Amino acid sequence: MQMTFEATTSATLWFSSWHFMGWSYWGSCVGLFLFCLLHEFLTTYRSKVKQAISSQTSKQTGAANQQGSNTEQLLPRSQASSSLQLWHSALYAINIAFSYLLMLAVMTYNVGYFFVVVLGLATGHLLFQLPGLVSSELSDVCCVQR
Questions:
Q1: How confident is the model at residue 130 (pLDDT cuts 50, 70, 90)?
Q2: pTM
Q3: Domain-by-domain residue ranges, the chain?
Q4: DSSP string spanning 10-52?
Q5: What is the DSSP letter of 19?
């Protein structure tokens, strides 16, 4: 296994049968870039789903407080809230899988793949994570403190 960066237009990406050379290498770079954009889009979308869950939870808590409940109580989850939480968990799993695939692309130690992944994630962040649009959740989900 290679352990130093190499600046070539030949690389194997994820599977031994996916060995790209010449023009197919540049096509794989475009594909990686688009994959990074998709990753950032899903991160933003997952954050919006999380905000919707929080909004529903706060509405339920507010309704319970209006009924005169001074003590904290467990509220039954609505079916919509449960399905949103299930959807959020599925998006989280997809996001984690994408993160690991991008990490493996960088670990090919191919300079082109490294720069394409960094540029793709930065471009996706610029396009989808506009201020005020989503919470300050990080794209690198493996490092987010919960």
A1: low
A2: 0.69
A3: 78-132
A4: EEE-SSTT-EEETHHHHHHHHHHHHHHHHHHHHHHHHHHHHHH
A5: E
